[in-house]
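assembly run, all chains below
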Amino acid sequence: QLQLQESGPGLVKPSETLSLTCTVSGGSISSSSYYWGWIRQPPGKGLEWIGSIYYSGSTYYNPSLQSRVTISVDTSKKQFSLKLRSATAADTAVYYCARRSSSWYLIAFDIWGQGTMVTVSS
Amino acid sequence: SSELTQDPAVSVALGQTVRITCQGDSLGSYYASWYQQKPGQAPVLVIYGKNNRPSGIPDRFSGSSSGNTASLTITGAQAEDEADYYCNSRDSGVNHVIFGGGTKLTVL
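ok done. output:
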């Protein structure tokens, strides 16, 4: 049973870089059938897609965050990572990593991590 | 970019049928998926594609689509179905993912 686990600091200072890692266990990160993505949820609000990465390194980002976001993958460690630069209080959220089908006609995130709360505050 | 619009809140009497809708231009071209989220928990995929349920999802959950509207139907709603429900799809013409704003379902 494939599982995802987010890790990283729970507190980030304003203007600094928010960095999170998602570790894949119980399965392969190098499958051509899936993308790996980050989704966040501010307290009391809805879900927001941050971006996705393919095992080859191809990336796709939310246009509203693209200038500040980098997602990378390390297949040898079975991990993919998120970096969000110049963090502000508006970036305070629960951050989820998730797996989705590789088809762009059907976007279905079928496996999610438990989520990690990140607070941006001095 | 496109948007997906959901009613903020819907209620249903225990055992009755409820339909939660998701409207957006991209749904005329791409499938929607639906997620259930209970407080303090990660979202769970309940419906994807034309009308597919992942393993472990009760068959009272079903999906449908017409034009630019996708629907999630719960037939015989149970108390444990009380949750937030989100739809998602591809943004029109670009390789981006979009989510609806979510619908809070109350089971009375």
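The first strand of chain A starts at residue 3 and ends at 7.

The CA atoms of residues 35 and 54 of chain A lie 5 Å apart.

not gonna interpret more than that til we talk
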